[in-house]
Amino acid sequence: MTKKTIILLGFILTKFLLQYFLFNPQYDLQRDEYLHLDQANHLAWGYTSVPPVTSWISYLILILGNAVFWVKFFPALFGALTILVVWKTIEELKGNLYAMVLGSTCVLLSVLLRLNFLFQPNSLDVLCWTAFYFSLIRYFNKEKQKWLFIAAVIFAVGFLNKYNMVFLLIGLIPAVLLTSQRKIFAQRGLYAAIVFSLLLVSPNLYWQYANNFPVFHHLKELAETQLVNVNRWGFLREQVFYFIGALPVIISSMYALLCYEPLKKYKFFFWSLLFTLATFLYFRAKGYYAIGLYPVYIAIGSVFLGNILHTGWKVYLRPVILAVPVLFYVLLFRVFYTIEIPEDILKRKDVYQKLGLLHWEDGKDHALPQDFADMLGWKELALKIEAVYNHLPKGSQTLIVCDNYGQAGAINYYAKNKSIRAVSFNADYINWFNLEKKTDNFIRVKAFTYRDGEFKKTSPFFNKSFVADSVNNSFAREYKTTIFVFMEPKIDVNQRLKSEIEITKR
């Protein structure tokens, strides 16, 4: 085993260890993770919320036992593979060992440590962006068409994981057209690779067509409820923080692409960064949508710095530049990762606020970072639902309807009684109602802000109604979410729910 291989394996092992240790067990899983895990029970070629790849990974997690270890394993794996691809990109660009160590350190000690502990499409998205760029570099170096087809497969996997991959092409195509590498568009192999990629994603495209393109409804809802609150200056500020320790390397890559002869053939990457960021800014995208952009620039910048800092006094700058990502990691790890419990975060609220970490999707500042608040209260809710469910008359049919996908997914994940299946009018759950059997009991999980009218709205249709419990964790985003129980229906509950489902789908 060579020295380079040992060092690479050391980075990969460190990556896995950090992903498991930078997580305080006081937190539950995050809201989105419950939905993605529940998709394993409803495999399809598409979903309202995401394309199908996440559900395939969820199914594998389900087969492995659905334990938190495996939920955390796969995003950590994608993060480790991202480091591997950056390492291979540096090798392809003729970088030396210092460049490989620098690039790997910058990727390891970055926002990916936070991104890679959440089971969401984002970790695989970053890997696919990085691997696609690597394949493109390989093609321009070797001019072998197989790399176009490898890029086509990577794009298809990325697209089937997260439609964010489209932005990669939006930024890349005009960038290539501006440079001498535009000759790629004269290659018939490119168009064969495009057709091949389209064939791979066609089942999902057909699913979108057959279901009236729910992706557009989802994007419209996202734009109206979340992206409208995105501040463009805040987007740019987030880009700086995501890879703050790698800034000298990324800035160096910009210079290298324009002025350093061995790397000038990849000048299209300079324009691609500008075009892609401009597109994200135009659409008011969330800051993390652009994270996949940066690993390839870290690779390019590392090669440049590794090559120029090898003689004379410049050699002494090597440890300084390598120390920058380590220093920023040490300074910021307490606020960027779920190490601190909520009480400790409140004591240092000013620090979190100055870094913009308390700013939520609703455009307001809150007590905790949104991801942290979204990892509290779920197990409490699920256990209370199960306690209520187990006290209802045996043999009766109970339907649990929640306000949002996080509530429904958490109940389905934590409930030991597997006859408990919660649904919601929100996200993919709108398609997962099982109304084949008559409903005897109706449990309604209602968020605090909407709960006041629940009795008035629903109790007239039942002979018995009461409030069973609520979420008591004041740090949770679901704080005061209430469990209503309705028994002995006066109407056909299922028929009424079918009408509400049809109205919601419109």
How large is the count of helical segments? 23
**Low-pLDDT windows of residues:** none
Q: What summary fits the major beta sheet?
A: 5 strands, mixed
How are the strands ordered across the major sheet? Answer: 2-1-3-5-4
- Dominant shape: globular
As a percent range, the share of strand residues is 5-15%
Give the fraction of residues assigned to helices.
Answer: 55-70%
N→C terminal distance: 60 Å
Order of helices and strands: HHHHHHHHHHHHHHHHHHHHEHEEHEEH
User: Total number of β-strand segments?
Assistant: 5
Secondary-structure content class: alpha/beta
The oligomerization state is single chain
The average pLDDT is 89
Cα gyration radius (Å): 25 Å
List the helices and strands and how they pair.
Blueprint: H1 3-21, H2 31-38, H3 53-63, H4 68-92, H5 97-108, H6 112-115, H7 122-142, H8 146-161, H9 165-177, H10 188-210, H11 214-225, H12 232-242, H13 247-259, H14 268-282, H15 294-308, H16 317-336, H17 342-347, H18 349-354, H19 370-373, H20 378-390, E1 398-402, H21 405-414, E2 422-424, E3 441-446, H22 454-458, E4 462-470, E5 482-489, H23 493-505
Parallel strand pairs: 1-2, 1-3
Antiparallel strand pairs: 3-5, 4-5
Helix pairs in contact: 1-4, 1-5, 2-21, 4-5, 4-7, 4-15, 5-15, 5-16, 7-8, 8-10, 9-14, 13-15, 20-21
Structure notes:
The protein has 506 residues and is α/β, with parallel strands linked by helices. It contains 23 helices and five strands. Strands 2-1-3-5-4 form a five-stranded mixed beta sheet. Helix 21 links the parallel strand 1 and strand 2. The termini are far apart.
